[in-house]
Design a protein that fits this description.
The chain is of the alpha+beta class. It is built from five helices and eight strands.
């Protein structure tokens, strides 16, 4: 602990903060709340937020952490995996900046995001209940299986496509045995 830090602790405790040694001490009578605030403000700056988990993690433009889990999972399983990472959730890409970042972050992997139309067909909501104000659906998406051939109620970033935009897909393999399991993009 530095001399000033030690003197500050003593002064806050109501002790004489004089440390002797040729006038290098601090007179406790001049320490007030403004002095304490100034000393605290001059302390080391906050370290940048560290994001961890999954196969890759990054700090997003909105200050949240994005975590990519590449193991294929159903939508319900992906939600549970995300909850296990700092109480997170599947990502809510509510702005163009966040979506652009997420699309670059996931690379070429089809990846769940946290939106569905399970409550009302063709009305996609984020899992927190908010409506999609910003969207980045690929051309002719959402299309519910190409015009209603089968249910596609959960949203992904179609990372395997060149455009990397959003697509609706089955939430599990009960509708289409070869679909319904994808990587997950978590957010906390």
């Amino acid at each position: 602990m530095t001399r000033i830090g030690f003197a500050l602790v003593l002064a806050l405790a109501g002790c004489d903060a004089s440390l002797g040694g040729g006038g290098g001490g601090i007179d406790s009578s001049v320490i007030d709340a403004r002095s304490v605030d100034a000393l605290v403000a001059d302390a080391a700056p906050d370290a940048p937020r560290m994001c961890t988990g999954g196969n890759a993690a990054a700090l997003a433009p909105d200050g949240s952490c994005l975590v990519h889990i590449t193991a294929p999972a159903t939508y319900a399983s992906a939600k549970l995996m995300c909850m296990g990472i700092n109480g997170g959730h599947l990502a809510y890409l509510k702005t163009a900046a966040l979506d652009t970042f997420a699309e670059a972050f996931i690379g070429t992997v089809d990846t769940w995001i946290g939106g569905t139309d399970l409550a009302t067909e063709n009305t996609f909501l984020w899992d927190d209940g908010t409506a999609f104000a910003f969207t980045n659906w690929a051309t002719d998406e959402p299309n519910n299986g190409g015009g209603g051939a089968f249910q596609e109620d959960c949203a992904i970033i179609a990372g395997a496509r060149a455009t990397k935009q959003w697509d609706d897909r089955p939430c599990d393999s009960s509708e289409v045995p070869t679909s319904g399991t994808f990587a997950a993009l978590c957010q906390y």
